[in-house]
Amino acid sequence: MAVRLYFLPVEHLTAPAYEIPKYVPHRHRAATTGLEGLAWAWVTYLLEDVGLLAADVTPAQHTILNGQSDVIAVPVNLDTTLSAGAVTVAQTQLETWRIPNAWVSTALTYREVLRTIYAMWRVHNRYVGRTEGRLFGGTVTLDTTLGELPAAARQRLADAASDFGVDTSAATGATTLRQALKAFADQVADQTFQVGTVEV
Amino acid sequence: MALPATDSFNGTFNDTLTTYSANWSNVVGTIRITISPGIRPDNASNFSGYRWNADTFADKHYAKGVATDVSPGVNASAGVGPAIRCQSGASSFYYCVTFGTGPKAFNGECITGTGTDWDSGQTIAAGDTIEIGVDPTTATTILFKRNGSLTATYTSKSALSAGSAGVCGFDSDGGVQMTSWEGGDVAGGGGGAASKGVASMTLVGVQ
């Protein structure tokens, strides 16, 4: 057994209205064969399509999860740097998940990448809680500028960042959400976090 | 009123919580008074929540109750439990809701009525006191206690701040119920804005 981290898709159930991790067991949906009874914990990009899940898996369970085309298994050693191939995979998936991606490089360790991603999630999730809805709903994309957001949404995003001590003064109306989320995250990305028993 | 607030839900059978007492405000769905006394959920396949409105809570607060019955009679997914950070004018809160299979308590966040469990559940038994509360030192760390013992820690829970202690339920069923509710501020927690300088996240859901 080994506790491992996985990026995996969120399934958006509508009846009931629930966000659940794909493949692993959940009380509202059976697990993929071979993963029954697997205990897990996760953090999510709230109301978006991805979560970071920790699970104590057997080799067979890891093979099942790692074999899914929409799952990214994070190496056990978080202090290794990303290979060029891993950078390509990460950038592609991050864009799909509406997470700024251009900053990922072979110079970074998995730990550094995870901390930055989670720092973006932290600010984003507070925005979602304040707003009672998605940041990326409707026509809003990573390339939407702050000036294109409604004034109330723009203020809530600034408030969400400020809740974590983030200085938002450099952001302008021309700043894209892609730039803003990364700039906000950079100010708190040195902070550690844990998923399950894995300290990142 | 003074904190901690308490309620045994000794009211008229089947009244909604707001009919039963003006101390409760509806957040989402419906929760009703049971015979025993206690409360039960009544919102088919969805969350219910009410917040205690008679007191103002610090950002670091808790809620707990006795899960007297955890086995649903009809709807297997039904459960009930305490809630924190219940927002005024919004259907959002952090929940601790029972589930008959196990039985377990599931902790998570209900944001605008959509639930997300934080892990694959914590083992409980009928008659347990289940508690969800904010960590005394870190406003984004949420603690789950079973009969007063810390069982799970969830950190970097950043979506909600402030709000009130309350109760929650899922689905609709008369076979699950909670009583002896209590909500209050966390000792040593003080008030203040949440979450600046969050240093770590611990999520001990993996068993």
Q: Can you give the helix content of chain B as a percent range?
A: under 10%
Radius of gyration of chain B: 15 Å
**Oligomeric state as shown:** heterodimer
Report the average pLDDT across residues of chain A: 95
- SSE arrangement of chain A, N to C: EEEEHEHHHHEE
Strand content of chain A: 15-25%
Largest sheet properties of chain B? 9 strands, antiparallel
Structural class of chain B: mainly beta
Q: Which parts of chain B are unreliable, with pLDDT below 50 for 5 consecutive residues or more?
A: 190-207
Number of strands of chain A: 7
β-strand amount of chain B: over 45%
Structural class of chain A: alpha+beta
Report mean pLDDT of chain B, rounded to a whole number.
90
List the total number of helices of chain B. 1
Tell me about the largest β-sheet of chain A.
5 strands, antiparallel
Protein architecture, described:
The complex is a heterodimer of chains A (200) and B (207). Chain A is α+β, with helices and mostly antiparallel strands and 200 residues long. Chain A has helices at 59-66, 84-96, 110-131, 151-162, 177-186, and strands at residues 2-14, 17-21, 40-44, 50-57, 72-74, 194-195, 198-199. Helices cover 32% and strands 19% of the residues of chain A. In chain A, the strands form 2 sheets. In chain A, strands 1, 2, 3, 4 and 5 form a 5-stranded antiparallel beta sheet that branches. Chain A starts with a strand and ends with a strand. Chain B has 207 residues and is an all-beta fold. Chain B has one helix at 17-20; strands spanning 5-7, 24-28, 31-34, 38-52, 61-69, 79-86, 93-99, 104-111, 114-117, 122-123, 129-134, 142-146, 149-154, 164-172, 177-185. In chain B, strands 2, 3, 4, 6, 7, 8, 9, 10 and 14 form a 9-stranded antiparallel beta sheet that branches. A 6-stranded antiparallel beta sheet of chain B has the order 1-15-5-11-12-13, with no helix packed on it. Chain A binds chain B through residues 3, 15-20, 24-28, 38-44, 46-47, 54-56, 118, 122-123, 125-126, 128-129, 132-133, 163-165, 188, 191-197, 199, and chain B through 45-47, 77, 90-92, 99, 101, 106, 109, 111-121, 155-156, 158-161, 170-171, 193-207.
